[in-house]
Design goal:
The protein is mainly β and 91 residues long. 4% of the residues lie in helices and 37% in strands.
Length: 91
């Protein structure tokens, strides 16, 4: 990808939404229409604040629902998030 975040920002690719629960219940689209709040880090900026978070490309993170900006490149949707919008690392 030729998109590089500036400063304390990260580019995250949202993970696909779950269509069934762990118990096998299929979720209708009306329940599943909210955006996914979990994604994979694709690129990191070189800002001081984001460097302190010790993140790495490929890590899965949880981000805030209304944070960041959405962008679509080559048919794939990404979010450009500020360091404050990254809430947790999924291990």
């Amino acid at each position: 990808m030729n998109l590089k975040p500036l400063g304390d920002r990260a580019i995250v690719k949202a993970l696909p939404k779950e269509e069934t629960t762990k118990s096998g219940i299929i979720l209708p689209e009306t329940v599943n229409n909210e955006s996914r709040l979990e994604g994979e880090i694709i690129a990191l900026g070189k800002g001081e604040k984001i460097s302190k978070l010790n993140l790495a490309i490929g890590q899965k993170v949880v981000f805030s629902q209304y944070g960041g900006s959405e962008i679509k490149i080559d048919g794939q949707e990404y979010k450009i998030l500020n360091h404050d919008d990254l809430l947790a690392v999924v291990e």
